[in-house]
Amino acid sequence: MSTNMIRTILHIIVPLLWITECTPSFQHRRRHNKLSHSSVQTAPVSIIVDVPAPEPRLVRYSNPSALLRACLPFDTWHMNIALGLMLQYLVFVGDSEPGPREPKLWFGVWTADQLDLVFVRAHGMGIFCSPVHSSLLFFNWLSTRMHLVASALHTLIVSHTQTSLSSVFGAIALVQAFIPAYAAISGLEVCASVVRETLHTHCPASRVSLDPPNLPEGHEIRVVRLGENETMDGIVKFLQEFSDPHRGPVAAFTLDMTQKRAKFGVWFGDMMLYVIRSEDGEGEEYAGFVRVGRVTGRYAAVSSVFTAPKWRRRGIAEALTRAAVVRLLSQPNNMADIIRPLMPPPQAGDEEAQLKVASVCIFAEKSNVSAQGIYTRVGFGFQERGWEEEGAKSWEECIEMAYAVRQGAM
Question: What is the DSSP secondary structure assignment for residue 381, as one 8-state letter?
């Protein structure tokens, strides 16, 4: 074979290999199948076969367990809000299929055997997640998949099978890809202003000490147990104060809703109170609380970190956050019995790793620099002290956008 012919063949092959390497779904498969990727790199190329790329497909799941069985193997910190919420739903509500016009919906978009993204509805809001960092996903790639979601959702809403979508939430890239796709099909546009902007990140076990926080004498962080009715009243008050500033499409929680949230949280051991005993030791005061939860196989979340106004700027929020992270990383996975039947059989010796929380997730309002500083000191990867992982940053920007017109009610 002549030198010129060899150069011509290489000129054709090398760009093709580069294009394959840069495809988002290939990047994700590479992380989960390093052996396969290695064999592709080292195998000699003898012939070029033009194989069409598999088309993405949308799967609608009839209940939470069906979605979880399919998607839990793709558990990453980016997926925590969707998978964690579905596991909580499974525990507290059950596994039944939603009734007519009940705003609950579970979609997965797949390319071959690769999960590309998940869409779940909780009340009027739609939540988007992808197993990979949104910065690694190209807009055109996302648009194709969002068109599938938008088309299926529109069909369900206009047929009165689903109620109207009040808002969408997720990483900015996902939301910005969905909005034009849904507008093209439904004719509905989102409101001009953003409902909320948040940052989502996580704290791996390697970045935090598992020693409990040092507290002043007379101070205690306590896990609330069932039957502590007086303590429950304090938690309900805190939950109402915490949710009250939120003025999005979903109104602040009513007293009844707050009491139910507190009951579920206490029942599952999710509530931790910061307690300060009086100087005479006869009484105590609640200075703040934190919730832990959304536990999946390898990830969990800290949420609703709250300090009573009179006790702020005394390190209580940081102590609560640190205590919650330490608890999640050091104690057995309290969802293990729920998750185990939903996961594929582990390989020998892998079950403990499959059900061991390795990192804790958290959201913070983008404008709340003070909270981000607190969480960063604990070990979370917000902007100023973030890190690079697998070609992306340790945090994602998320937004919620609202719809003013109620589709299906017209």
Answer: -
C-beta atoms surrounding 120 within 10 Å: 24
The contacts of residue 228 (CB under 8 Å, 6+ apart) are 266
Pairing type for strands 395-402 and 167-171 reads: antiparallel
| Three-state DSSP state, 227 | coil
CATH class entry, domain 205-396? alpha beta
Q: Domain locations in the chain?
A: 3-42, 56-197, 205-396
In tens, the pLDDT along 61-108 reads 999 999 999 999 999 999 999 999 999 888 878 887 777 667 789 999
Both structure tokens of 246:
């939120």
Nearest to 208 by CA among 383, 378, 381, 385: 378
CA 233/CA 85 separation, integer angstroms: 25
For the chain, what's the residue count?
Answer: 410
- How do 299-307 and 359-365 pair as beta strands? parallel
